[in-house]
Amino acid sequence: MKCTNKCLALLTALAVCFGATGCSDEAIAFSYNPDYKVSAFRISGDTGFETANAFASGLCVVNGDINTDNSAVDMTDATSAGLFDLNSRTVLYAKNIHERLAPASLTKLMTAVVALKYGNPNDVITVSSNMGNLESGAVVCGLAEGDQLTLNQALHALLIKSANDAAVAIAEHIGGSVEGFSDMMNAKAKELGCTNTHFANPHGLQDENHYTTAHDMALIAQAAYQNETFRIIIGTKMYTIPPTNKHAEETVLRNHHDMLCTYHNANRKYLYPYCVGGKTGYTATANSTLVTYAEKDGMTLICVVMNTQSPNQFIDTVNLFDYAFDNFQVLNVAENDTDYSAETTVDNGNLNNIEPFVELDKDAVIVLPKTAEFSDTSSSVEYNDSDPEIAGSITYTYAGRNVGKADIKTTGVVVEGYAFDNESTEEEEQEAVSTVQVRPIVVVLLIVAVILLGVLLFFLKRFYDNYYIIKHNRAVRRDRKDQKRRIRKKRRRRRRWR
After folding, report:
1. Residues 177 and 212 sit within 8 Å (Cβ to Cβ)
2. Which H or E run contains 210?
3. Residue range 69-97: average pLDDT?
4. Is 31 a catalytic residue?
5. What does the CA dihedral 215, 283, 301, 229 come to, rounded to 10 degrees?
6. Active site residue: 88, 105, 182, 393, which one?
7. What value does the mean pLDDT take over residues 450-469?
8. Which stretches within 389-439 are classed as H helix?
9. Which stretch of DSSP H or E encloses residue 327?
10. Which of 83, 152, 295, 465 is deepest in the core (most CB within 10 A)?
11. Was domain 104-285 assigned CATH 3.40.710.10?
């Protein structure tokens, strides 16, 4: 018997179970410092508080700004900024994160995503004559027509030096042309859930049809971080491209991210110990832009800052990172969701072997203020009928904000019927009939048995019909013998008395 009904019953029970868990009527606050408490998930706006109740493909959807107390995070003049937890896909801070802005060289993150998806790091790129079409003053690494280098070397030039000629070379190699590659970038952006993004080129130089948002940029940054080659490159402080067929000298590349190294900042003012890499950007239209990754205490954060004056992009990023690491914690869902674990086993009916046929994703996490506990969250279950490996998902909320999501995965355990279950499917019955093999010896033995049974029944019937006649005849013969004995006995008595 198939397990579909049992799975649905289990998930229904889970929904009831989670629906009973929730927050109290009083909002739970966390403290940035002992003297002042603020809500971690406050959304400002003329209409009051709003809640986000859905996830994009990579991040929680937010309907407005998520602000912190001014004493906690002193933001500068950035038009847009966002702080995102990569693993839980939670938005921790938001300022105009859906406003369309020019990304400048943050574009190169998507260039890397597409290149690593469709290319191999060992691919050899031959540079075309289009390198001279870049605008005056654009950052380049000096590629010449006919130059040959690997895709891996070109990606280092793209992400470390922010070389625009490397971006063009990569685009032509992967997409056949800048236009063709731009179409691939836009297709990938749509796949990731970017709703306010359009790329016109692979480098980010000025184009009125080239724009994105902090939210969409975080989705792209999250996708890029899944690739190990990308993570290695963005964390590299210095890289050397060996001599090529057109260059007799080495090309030394130095990282421009001041939170990672001190190439632009000799006094080490903006160095951040938990920074693992990122991407800088600047054009006259976009101003300074920045994407940065940081890791600490099991938390991986992405910070996006757009349209600000340098060095404010570094100041804002440091402030937001410090704020998050000081006030938030990461909790593993499978280790903390006791309500779920208590309802996930089913008896297969085979030697009392009890195994779970669904389980929570062991890598799923949520992010909560350090003053909150897992039991303070509420959750809702969404069923999934399209993926045989994912039975559904659970979305966790705290203080009205989405704080993480966990998939309910199937384990591969097959839930079968009991050994004496008289129910069977039509398919199983047909299969059983089709597998019966009739042997001649069986037919002969069956016929002989039927004949013997018929003979036996015949004699039994005759015996039953004659039973009372035989019994009567025996009684008559017995009476006659008794009568003869009495007559003989009488005669003997008469002789004696004579």
Report:
1. no
2. none
3. 83
4. no
5. 110
6. 105
7. 79
8. 426-434
9. helix 312-327
10. 83
11. yes
Mean pLDDT over each residue of the chain, to the nearest integer: 79
Measured CA to CA, the distance from residue 284 to residue 272 in angstroms comes to 27
Helices (H), 162-299: 164-175, 178-192, 214-225, 228-234
**Entry pTM:** 0.70
**CA-closest candidate to residue 83, choices 412, 273, 357, 304:** 304
Tell me which of 448 and 308 has the higher pLDDT.
308
Q: Is the pLDDT of residue 340 over 60?
A: yes
What is the per-residue DSSP string for 460-479? HHHHHHHHHHHHHHHHHHHH
Indicate if 288 belongs to the active site. Answer: no
Token pair 């054009």 in the structure block, residue: 283
Max mean pLDDT among 39-53, 132-146, 482-496 falls in 132-146
Q: Tell me whether residue 108 is one of the annotated catalytic residues.
A: yes
Mean pLDDT of 286-303: 97
CB 7 within 8 A of CB 412: no
Options 162, 182, 288, 393, the catalytic residue: 162
**Cα separation of the two ends of the chain:** 100
% helix, strand, coil for the chain, step of 5: 40, 25, 40
Q: What is the DSSP letter of 263?
A: S
Place of tokens 């406050």: 42
Tens of pLDDT along 239-251? 999 998 988 899 9
- pLDDT, one tens digit per residue, over 295-334 is 999 999 999 999 999 999 999 999 999 999 999 999 999 9
Beta-bridge mates of residue 95 = 81
Q: Which residue has the tokens 């050899």?
A: 124
Tokens of 188: 């990938």
Measured CA distances, 311 to 82, 138, 277, 308, 314 (Å): 17, 20, 17, 8, 6
Structure tokens at 137: 């003053």
* 455 Cβ neighbours under 8 A, 6+ residues apart: none
398: tokens are 């705290």
User: What tokens were used for 235?
Assistant: 């964390």
Query: For tokens 């309500």, what's the residue?
Result: 339
Q: How far apart are CA 444 and CA 394, in angstroms?
A: 64
DSSP per-residue codes, 267-283: T-TT--TTEEEEEEEEE
Both tokens of 349, joined, read 């009916």
CA distance linking residue 218 with residue 210, whole number of Å: 17
